[in-house]
Every structure is written in structure tokens, then in C-alpha cells.
Amino acid sequence: MDNFSALLEQEIPRLRRYAFALHRSDRCRADDLVQDTLLRAIAKQHLWEPGTNLRGWLSTLMHHQHVNDVRRSVLFEGRCFPLEGFHDTLASVNDTSASLQLRDLDRAIGELPVERREVILLAALEGMPYKAIAELLAIPIGTVRSRLGRGRAMLREMMDPGDGAARPSRAREGRPARLAA
User: Under a CB-based contact definition with an 8 Å cutoff, are residues 113 and 84 in contact?
Assistant: First the structure.
């Protein structure tokens, strides 16, 4: 096994985790995305420069593959139905509140706009720094911060819709309120 193959093999768990999050628990589509990404990586191996960030390069390949898949799926929308939609795939546990919260979080993440969902998954699930996310998605770092902040706010709102009171921002806690001029 050559060095590239060994490095590629080490990245497979991260690719699978990110693909699984992108496809919202549809393991088959996530595995297909990982396989397509790995095939593309092997085919374009000559473009990767040893010593550079392989994880970032693979994430970029996966991101582009995912975008292509989403565009392609729009053409076939309504023609097929995932089997997972017809039965409950959650394993039963003694404490159902945790699994219910995870289910609600999964649904809330799925309702986020794609741009915000991608940034949240890359930052929270993959632990990528903002700068790396900005480079991967080819957007300014300020846009990453904005999407992340707005996405988190949307998640908080969706996860706790019964709370009608506005929550103060953590950045403003303990500071006197400013009055508009």
C-alpha cells in the first residue's frame, strides 16, 4: 500500500461522519457519497501535493460531490421514496428523552437552509476552524461566522419554540442596553 492510500484510509471515518450528517441519517446515501469521494480522490490523486492538507482536499471533493448529487436529485425529485421514511429507525432505549431530543435536533438541522447547515456541521461535527471552512466553501470568514451564528440561533428557536421571551445574546450579558439615537 502506498503512502497516499494509507493517508486516505485514515480519513475515511471523518468522511463517513460528515457524509452521514449531510444526508441526515440516510446511511446508504452517506456511504455512496463517501465511495464517490474516494473514487474521485483516487482518480485525481495526481493533483494532490504531498505535505498539504489531505483532509481539506478530501472535504472539498466531498462538498463538490454532494452539491452535484443535490442538483441531480432535484431532477428526480418525487420519483423515488427512501425506505427509511416508512418505518422508525430509532433504537429503543430506557430513557427516551435523549433519543427524542436527538430526533428533534436532527429534524431541526434538516430544516436549516443548506448554507447554514453545512457551516454548522463542519464547525460542530468536524471541528474545523472557521478559516478552513471559509476556504472549503470559498466564502469569506465573516460569512462563515454569520451563517454559524444565524444557524445556531435558528436551531435554538426550533428546539425551544415554547419560550416566547427573547433571549439576550451572550455578548451583551452584563452590559447596559444601548438606546437608539
Answer: no
Cell of 28: 446508504
Stronger pLDDT, 148 or 49, i.e. the higher one: 148
Pick the CATH number of 1-75 from 1.10.10, 1.25.10, 3.30.1150, 1.10.1740: 1.10.1740
Predicted structure pTM score: 0.49
Q: What are the distances in angstroms from CA 158 to CA 9, 60, 105, 109, 174?
A: 37, 29, 9, 9, 26
Q: What is the mean pLDDT of residues 140-161?
A: 90
Q: What does the alpha-carbon distance between residue 48 and residue 93 come to, in Å, rounded to a whole number?
A: 45
